[in-house]
């Protein structure tokens, strides 16, 4: 799944908008969503962010769906776990599977958790899809976020693209050898994919450290500074 978030962040109608407005706006909305814990507010925030991202910033539906697909899967799995394995009180549904039941409390917990996580994630999506990472890091530096946090964020952001590129290359190679033909072959290919990805990630991290050391890295990385107008 090819997805270039850096290209999208530089090529949308809100990329040149003041990054401070977008950063503080996203943080404030996320905090309100977290503290109020209101499902209607969660849905409203998600819909509004989707309208801003696709309607105003003109980011395509396909790219937006790619962006939210993986968080959607993890959030859904977490919510299902909360529904099935937490909560007390009277059962409203018996699954008939290993005695698992769904109570009113657990159902509400799962739904509210899903809504809150996705509302906050849509705010984060708005910021990351409409603002280049260099501008975000510059803003964080100006508001006195510790440098070590900014550098870790920069390194993680850079390695994400290496990680996705390797993942895409290995998956294409497996598909070309019919690695996903049938359930058994799919499981075998996925196991091989993730184990190799782990080893390659370790190798890439060592090479990254060597590259930084060879360029005189002293524990402080320069951050983009926009030209004052």
Q: What is the terminal-to-terminal distance?
A: 40 Å
Largest sheet properties: 2 strands, antiparallel
* Widest β-sheet, arrangement of strands: 1-2
Please trace the helix and strand order, writing H or E for each element.
Answer: HHHHEEHHHH
Gross morphology is globular
**Strand-residue fraction?**
under 5%
Q: Give helix % range.
A: over 70%
Output the keywords.
229 residues, 8 helices, globular, mainly alpha
Describe what you observe in this structure.
There is one protein chain. With 229 residues, the protein is mainly alpha-helical. Helix content is 72%, strand content 3%. It contains 8 helices and 2 strands, in the order ααααββαααα. Strands 1-2 form a two-stranded antiparallel ribbon. Helix 4 (61-85) runs antiparallel to helix 5 (104-130) and helix 6 (133-142) packs antiparallel against helix 7 (147-176). The radius of gyration is 21 Å and the shape is globular. The model has no long low-confidence stretch (mean pLDDT 84).
Secondary-structure topology with pairs:
Layout: H1 5-10, H2 19-36, H3 39-56, H4 61-85, E1 91-94, E2 101-103, H5 104-130, H6 133-142, H7 147-176, H8 183-214
Antiparallel strand pairs: 1-2
Helix pairs in contact: 2-5, 3-5, 4-5, 6-7, 7-8
Write a brief structural summary.
The chain has 229 residues and is mainly alpha-helical. 72% of the residues lie in helices and 3% in strands. It has helices spanning 5-10, 19-36, 39-56, 61-85, 104-130, 133-142, 147-176, 183-214, and strands spanning 91-94, 101-103.
């Amino acid at each position: 799944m090819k997805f270039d978030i850096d290209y999208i962040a530089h090529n949308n109608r809100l990329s040149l908008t003041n990054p401070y407005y977008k950063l503080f706006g996203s943080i404030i909305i996320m905090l309100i969503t977290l503290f109020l814990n209101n499902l209607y507010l969660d849905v409203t925030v998600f819909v509004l962010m989707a309208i801003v991202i696709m309607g105003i910033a003109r980011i395509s539906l396909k790219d937006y769906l790619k962006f939210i697909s993986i968080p959607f899967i993890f959030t859904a799995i977490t919510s299902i776990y909360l529904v099935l394995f937490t909560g007390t009180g009277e059962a409203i549904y018996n699954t008939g599977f290993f005695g698992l039941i769904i109570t009113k409390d657990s159902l509400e917990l799962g739904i509210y958790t899903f809504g809150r996580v996705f509302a906050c994630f849509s705010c984060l999506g708005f910021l990351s899809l409409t603002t280049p990472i260099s501008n975000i890091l510059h803003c964080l530096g100006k508001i006195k976020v510790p440098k070590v946090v900014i550098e870790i964020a920069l390194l993680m952001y850079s390695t994400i693209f290496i990680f996705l590129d390797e993942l895409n290359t290995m998956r294409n190679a497996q598909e070309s050898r019919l690695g996903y033909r049938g359930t058994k072959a799919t499981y075998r290919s996925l196991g091989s994919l993730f184990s190799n990805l782990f080893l390659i990630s370790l190798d890439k991290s060592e090479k990254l450290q060597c590259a930084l050391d060879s360029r005189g890295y002293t524990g402080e990385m320069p951050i983009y500074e926009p030209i004052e107008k």
